C-alpha cells in the first residue's frame, strides 16, 4: 500500500474510533446504533492490524483471556455464579448493594450517657460535675502536660462563636448563588412547572401521591400569583385592618414579655424560701411559662393575621418574623431578669468573702496566740465544710439547662398529645361520631415546616448562649437532637398530613440562615458582655480570683510569651490604632455594597435585554401577516409612494417589523395573546434620512396608544437596518 | 460486575454498555437466552408494571414512544433504548427530543393545547378545575410559543426546556 493510502486508512480508523467513543450521544435507535457500532469495531480491528498496530488486536485477545482467567466462567454458567432464583427479585435493588457495603456500628457508651443525663439531679450531684462551670479549677496549669485550663476555656468559648459565624456566613454565600428570589420573575413558569416537575425516580405509591398533591398545590400557587394582580378592593379598609392587626400583635408581644418578667421575679422570691416547701411546678415555673408562650402565641398570631389579607408567601414571612420577635423578646426579658439575679448573687458573694477572710484572720490570730508561733499551718478543714460563695455562673448555666430541658419536654408532649393522640382519636372515633372528623374539625395535624425550622434555630441560640456557663449543655443537646429526630420522623409518617398550601418562605433557605445569623449575633452579646465586664466568682470556676475574665489572656501574654509580643499587643490595642482600623472597615463595607448594587443593576439590565430580544424574535418570526394588515390599514397615511426615494421603501417594512414593542407587559387576567397590543410605530426614523422622515415622524407619536413605549421602539428601530 | 441476570455473549454486553445502559438491564420478566438475537416483543401491559415505571403518570406514553410499532410492544432493543435515554448519562439533547415525543399525545409533531390539557390532567390527577386547566395551558402556550401558531413546535419546546434550571429526569 502506498503512503497516501496508508494515511487515508489511518484517518478512517481514527474516525471510526471517534464514532465508537461518541456513539452514546447520537440520537439513534438501538438497532441502528448496534449495527453502526459493530461495523465500526470490525473496521478498526481489521485495519489496525494492517497498519502495524497489531497490538490492538493482541491487547484485545489478552484482555479477553485475562477476564476469563480472573473471573473464570462467565456469569450464569454455573450455580455458584448465579443468583438463586428465589432471591432474584430482591437482588435487583440497589439498596441490597448498599446493605452489603455499609454496616453502621453504633457504639454508645452508657456510662457516659448517665454521667451527662442527670436531668432530675441538677440541684444535686450534677451541680458539681463537669456539666457546669463551677467544676473547673482555677489553677493556671493542670496535670503533667501543664495544660492551661483557664486559658483554653476562654479561648474555646470564643472560638466556638468565631467558627459558627464562619460556617453560617459561608453557607449563606453559597446559597446566594442558587439565585434566591430570581425565580419570581422567571419567564417560563408555567411551562417548566408542566414539563419538569415530575420526579422520575419515584417508585413508592405514597410518595407518588404526595408528589401529585405537591404539583397541584404548586400550580394553584402560580394561579393565585396570577390572580393577585386583579385584586384592588378598598385600600383604606385594608390599611385599617393591617394597622389594627399589628397593634393587637404588639400588645400580645408586650403582654408575654411582662408575664415572663413577673414570673422570673417570683422565682427569685421562691429561691429565698425553703426548697422543700415548693412544688415542682413552682420550681420550674419560668421555663414552663416560656415554653407555653412559645406554643400558644404563634396560632394566635396566625388567626390575627387573617385580618391582613396578604399574599400567602408574604403572610408567611410576617408570621415567621412575629414568632421570631416573640422568641427574642422572651429570651431577652429572661436574660435581664437573670442579670438582676446575678447582681444579687455578687453582693452576697462579697459579704461571704469578707466574712470568710475575717474568719481566716481570726483563726490565724487565735492559733498564733494559742501556740505562740508565727508559722501557722493552714486550717485543716475538709473540703466539704469550707464556706463557699454562691457561684453565679453555675446558677446561670443551670437556668439554661433547665430551659433546654423544659423545651424538650414541651416539644415531646405536644407531639404526643397534639399529633399522636389526636390522630388516634380522629381515626377511631370517626366511626361513631356525627360529623366527619377527618375532613372537618380536628382532622389530622399538619406538619408545620417553618415552625419546626424556627424551633431548631431558637434551640441553637439557647445553646450558644448557655455553652459558656455549662459546657455539658452541648452534649445534652446533641443527645436531644438525635432522639428528637427519630421521634419526629416517626410522628410525621404516622400522624401527620402534608400542609395544604406549600409556600416556601425562601427558595434557597437563605431566609432561615439569615435568622440563624441574627440569633448567633444576639447570643454572642450577653457572653461577651459577661467576659468583659462582670467579675467572676471568687472561689469557683477557672477564672476565680481574677478581676475580669479576660485577665487570663493578659497574664498569659505577660508571662508565657516573649517580651516583644507583649509590646506588640499593647500597641495593637491602642485606641489610636483601632479607630482607623474600624474606619477602614466601614469604608470597605460601603465600597463593596456599592459594587454589589452596581452588579445587580447590570444583571437586571441584561435580563431586560434578553427579554426584549426574545420578544423581538417572537414578533419577527410570527407576525408578518399582521404587520402587513396594520400596514394595509395605515396605507392611506403613507405619503404618496412616488414621492418616496426607493431605498426608503425597502427600509420601512423591515424597520416597522422590528418596531413592534414588547407585547407582554404583565400577563393580564384575560391572557392576551401575542397579536393584540401590537404597536407598529411608523415613527421610527431612519437616521440616514432625517429630512424626508419629518412628515411621517409627526404623524407617528399620536398614533401610539402608549407614548412611553415609543421610546424603546424607536431605539430598536435604529438598530433595525443593520440587523437586516 | 453487578446483578446482570442475562445470558448475553461478551460482545453483546460490551456493545450495550458502550451505548450507555447501566444497571437497568433487568428484564426479569422474560428470562430467555438472548445470544441468538431472537425476535421477542413484550406487551406494554407487562412493561408498565415494572417498579421503575409503575408510579409514573406518563408510563403509557413513554412505552409507546419507544416501541417500534407505536403500540407499546417492545423488543429488547427498544427496551434498552428506553432506559438508555432515561438514564443519567444520556445527553440533554437526546432527552429533549424524546421528551417532546412523549408529550405529543396525538403524534402530530406539535404539542397543541389538547396535549397540554392531557399532560396537566395526568400530572395533577384531575384535581384542578377546568377553568384552571385552561388558564394554565393558555399561559404555557403564551410563554413558550415563539411562532405564534398556538401550539408548540419542537423548536419552541427546545428553546424553553434548554433554559430550565432543573431539567433532569
Automatic annotation (TrEMBL), chain A:
Residues 391-506 form the TMC domain. Keywords: Membrane, Transmembrane, Transmembrane helix. Residues 610-724 are annotated as: Disordered. Residues 715-724 have a biased composition (Basic residues). One of its GO terms (molecular function) is mechanosensitive monoatomic ion channel activity. Pfam families: TMC. GO terms for cellular component: plasma membrane. Its main location: membrane. Belongs to the TMC family. This is Transmembrane channel-like protein. It comes from Nothobranchius furzeri (Turquoise killifish).
From TrEMBL, chain B:
Keywords: Calcium, Cell membrane, Cell projection, Cytoplasm, Magnesium, Membrane, Metal-binding, Repeat. SMART domains: EFh. Residues 91-126, 132-167 form the EF-hand domain. It is found in: Cell membrane, Sarcolemma; Cell projection, Cilium, Photoreceptor outer segment; Cell projection, Stereocilium; Cytoplasm. The keyword Coiled coil does not apply. InterPro entries: CIBP, EF-hand-dom_pair, EF_Hand_1_Ca_BS, EF_hand_dom. Its main location: membrane. GO terms for molecular function: calcium ion binding; magnesium ion binding. It comes from the Eukaryota. GO terms for cellular component: cytoplasm; photoreceptor inner segment; photoreceptor outer segment; sarcolemma; stereocilium. GO terms for biological process: calcium ion homeostasis. The keyword Calcium applies. PANTHER family: CALCIUM AND INTEGRIN BINDING FAMILY MEMBER 2, CALCIUM AND INTEGRIN-BINDING FAMILY MEMBER 2. This is Calcium and integrin-binding family member 2. It comes from Nothobranchius furzeri. The lineage of its organism: Eukaryota, Metazoa, Chordata, Craniata, Vertebrata.
Amino acid at each position: 500500500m502506498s503512503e497516501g493510502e496508508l494515511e487515508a486508512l489511518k484517518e478512517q480508523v481514527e474516525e471510526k474510533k471517534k464514532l465508537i467513543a461518541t456513539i452514546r450521544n447520537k440520537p439513534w435507535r438501538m438497532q441502528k446504533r448496534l449495527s453502526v457500532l459493530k461495523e465500526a469495531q470490525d473496521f478498526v480491528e481489521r485495519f489496525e492490524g494492517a497498519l502495524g498496530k497489531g497490538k490492538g488486536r493482541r491487547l484485545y485477545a489478552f484482555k479477553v483471556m485475562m477476564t476469563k482467567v480472573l473471573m473464570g466462567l462467565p456469569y450464569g454458567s454455573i450455580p455458584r455464579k448465579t443468583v438463586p432464583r428465589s432471591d432474584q427479585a430482591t437482588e435487583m435493588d440497589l439498596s441490597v448493594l448498599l446493605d452489603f457495603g455499609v454496616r453502621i456500628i453504633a457504639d454508645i457508651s452508657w456510662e457516659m450517657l448517665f454521667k451527662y443525663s442527670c436531668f432530675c439531679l441538677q440541684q444535686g450531684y450534677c451541680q458539681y460535675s463537669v456539666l457546669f462551670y463551677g467544676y473547673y479549677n482555677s489553677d493556671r496549669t493542670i496535670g503533667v502536660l501543664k495544660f492551661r485550663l483557664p486559658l483554653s476555656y476562654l479561648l474555646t468559648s470564643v472560638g466556638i462563636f468565631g467558627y459558627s459565624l464562619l460556617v453560617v456566613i459561608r453557607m449563606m454565600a453559597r446559597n446566594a448563588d442558587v439565585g434566591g428570589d430570581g425565580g419570581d420573575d422567571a419567564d417560563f413558569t408555567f411551562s417548566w412547572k408542566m414539563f419538569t416537575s415530575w420526579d422520575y425516580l419515584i417508585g413508592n405509591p405514597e410518595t407518588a401521591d404526595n408528589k401529585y398533591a405537591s404539583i397541584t398545590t404548586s400550580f394553584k400557587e402560580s394561579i393565585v400569583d396570577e390572580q393577585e394582580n386583579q385584586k384592588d378592593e378598598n385600600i383604606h379598609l385594608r390599611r385599617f385592618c393591617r394597622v389594627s392587626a399589628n397593634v393587637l400583635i404588639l400588645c400580645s408581644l408586650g403582654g408575654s414579655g411582662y408575664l415572663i418578667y413577673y414570673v422570673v421575679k417570683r422565682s427569685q422570691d421562691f429561691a429565698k424560701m425553703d426548697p422543700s416547701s415548693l412544688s415542682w411546678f413552682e420550681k420550674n415555673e419560668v421555663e414552663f411559662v416560656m415554653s407555653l408562650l412559645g406554643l400558644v402565641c404563634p396560632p394566635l398570631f396566625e388567626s390575627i393575621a387573617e385580618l391582613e389579607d396578604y399574599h400567602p408567601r408574604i403572610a408567611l414571612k410576617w408570621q415567621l418574623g412575629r414568632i421570631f420577635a416573640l422568641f427574642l423578646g422572651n429570651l431577652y426579658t429572661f436574660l435581664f431578669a437573670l442579670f438582676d439575679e446575678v447582681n444579687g448573687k455578687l453582693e452576697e458573694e462579697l459579704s461571704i468573702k469578707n466574712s470568710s477572710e475575717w474568719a481566716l484572720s481570726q483563726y490565724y490570730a487565735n492559733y498564733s496566740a494559742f501556740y505562740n508561733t508565727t508559722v501557722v499551718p493552714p486550717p485543716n478543714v475538709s473540703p466539704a465544710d469550707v464556706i463557699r460563695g454562691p457561684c453565679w455562673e453555675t446558677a446561670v448555666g443551670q437556668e439554661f439547662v433547665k430551659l433546654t430541658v423544659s423545651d424538650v419536654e414541651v416539644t415531646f408532649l405536644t407531639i404526643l398529645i397534639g399529633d399522636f393522640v389526636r390522630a388516634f382519636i380522629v381515626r377511631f372515633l370517626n366511626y361513631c361520631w356525627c360529623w366527619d372528623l377527618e375532613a372537618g374539625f380536628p382532622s389530622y395535624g399538619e406538619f408545620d415546616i417553618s415552625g419546626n425550622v424556627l424551633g431548631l434555630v431558637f434551640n441553637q441560640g439557647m445553646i450558644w448562649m448557655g455553652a459558656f456557663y455549662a459546657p455539658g449543655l452541648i452534649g445534652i443537646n446533641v443527645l436531644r437532637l438525635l432522639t428528637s429526630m427519630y421521634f419526629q420522623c416517626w410522628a410525621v409518617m404516622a400522624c401527620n398530613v402534608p400542609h395544604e398550601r406549600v409556600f416556601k418562605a425562601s427558595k434557597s433557605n437563605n431566609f432561615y440562615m439569615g435568622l440563624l445569623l441574627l440569633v448567633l449575633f444576639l447570643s454572642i452579646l450577653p457572653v461577651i458582655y459577661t467576659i468583659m465586664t462582670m467579675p467572676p466568682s471568687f472561689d469557683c470556676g477557672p477564672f476565680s480570683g481574677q478581676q475580669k475574665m479576660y485577665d487570663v489572656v493578659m497574664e498569659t501574654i505577660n508571662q508565657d510569651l516573649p517580651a516583644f509580643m507583649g509590646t506588640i499587643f499593647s500597641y495593637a490595642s491602642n485606641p489610636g490604632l483601632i479607630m482607623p482600623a474600624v474606619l477602614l472597615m466601614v469604608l470597605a463595607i460601603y465600597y463593596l455594597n456599592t459594587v454589589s448594587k452596581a452588579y445587580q443593576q447590570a444583571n437586571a439590565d441584561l435580563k431586560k435585554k434578553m427579554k426584549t430580544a426574545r420578544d423581538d424574535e417572537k414578533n419577527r418570526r410570527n407576525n408578518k401577516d399582521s404587520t402587513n394588515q396594520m400596514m394595509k390599514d395605515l396605507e392611506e397615511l403613507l405619503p404618496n409612494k412616488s414621492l418616496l426615494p426607493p431605498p426608503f421603501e425597502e427600509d420601512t417594512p423591515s424597520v416597522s417589523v422590528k418596531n413592534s414593542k414588547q407585547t407582554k407587559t404583565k400577563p393580564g387576567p384575560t391572557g392576551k395573546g401575542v397579536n393584540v397590543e401590537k404597536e407598529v410605530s411608523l415613527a421610527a426614523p431612519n437616521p440616514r434620512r432625517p429630512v424626508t422622515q419629518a412628515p411621517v415622524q409627526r404623524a407617528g407619536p399620536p398614533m401610539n396608544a402608549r407614548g412611553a413605549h415609543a421610546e424603546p421602539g424607536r431605539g430598536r428601530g435604529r438598530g433595525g437596518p443593520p440587523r437586516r | 460486575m453487578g446483578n446482570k441476570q442475562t445470558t448475553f455473549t461478551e460482545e453483546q454486553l460490551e456493545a450495550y454498555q458502550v451505548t450507555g445502559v447501566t444497571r437497568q438491564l433487568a428484564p426479569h420478566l422474560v428470562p430467555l437466552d438472548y445470544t441468538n438475537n431472537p425476535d421477542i416483543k413484550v406487551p406494554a401491559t407487562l412493561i408498565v408494571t415494572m417498579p421503575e415505571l409503575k408510579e409514573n403518570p406518563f408510563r403509557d406514553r413513554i412505552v409507546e414512544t419507544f416501541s417500534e410499532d407505536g403500540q407499546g410492544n417492545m423488543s429488547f432493543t427498544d427496551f434498552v433504548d428506553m432506559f438508555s435515554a432515561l438514564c443519567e448519562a444520556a445527553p440533554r439533547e437526546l432527552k429533549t427530543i424524546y421528551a417532546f415525543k412523549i408529550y405529543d399525545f396525538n403524534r402530530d409533531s406539535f404539542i397543541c393545547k389538547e396535549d397540554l390539557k392531557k399532560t396537566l390532567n395526568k400530572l395533577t390527577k384531575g384535581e384542578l378545575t377546568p377553568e384552571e386547566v385552561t388558564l394554565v395551558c393558555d399561559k404555557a402556550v403564551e410563554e413558550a410559543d415563539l411562532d405564534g401558531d398556538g401550539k408548540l413546535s419542537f423548536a419552541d419546546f427546545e428553546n424553553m426546556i434548554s433554559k430550565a434550571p432543573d431539567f433532569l429526569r
